[in-house]
Amino acid sequence: MLQSQSQSPPPPPDPTTTHQPAPPPPPPTPPLPSSGGQSFSEEEEASRSALKEFRAKEDEIERRRMEVRERVQARLGRVEEESKRLALIREELEALGDPLKKEVSQVRKKIDAVSKELKPLGVAVQKKEKEYRDVLDLFNEKNKEKVQLINRLVELVGESETLRIKKLEELSKSLESTHKLFYASGISDGDCCLVEAGGILGHLNLALLNGSC
Fold this sequence. Notes:
mainly alpha, 213 residues
């Protein structure tokens, strides 16, 4: 009977504790004594002690298995709660809309419309700028030509004044020499005045004609 109890198989392992190490095998059954009651009593005590130790280890393994199972269940509970919370956050994110979506859409449409209007205006501005530059270049060129003509006019007026003053000086000298010549030839004062007047008028008309030309 003692031999059958010591060789009983261990209970099947729990599937939740497959990661735990397998329990150690029971100690070997000592051989039956050939004779003597004292030897049999010691062997029976050793068998009981071994069986007790084996049961204690089994209890310890079962206790640890239950602890691990409780920890796994607690972890699974927390994971499930986190999953629910993450799913709720995801739903809120998907349902979250832009509160200013309508206004943003209207402003974008206005921007597109203004951009379309700006495009031909930009082309027109470039065209007008080119025309302005062309007209400005022509204006500067004509203004430069005008300045050159004015400078030439000033030069011509100065040359004309110089020539006329020179001519008047020559006429004045000619008048004086004619007056002296008349006095030397014995012409009277009255006749001399008439001749001088006629000569002066002739020279003045000639000078005026030259100046107008």
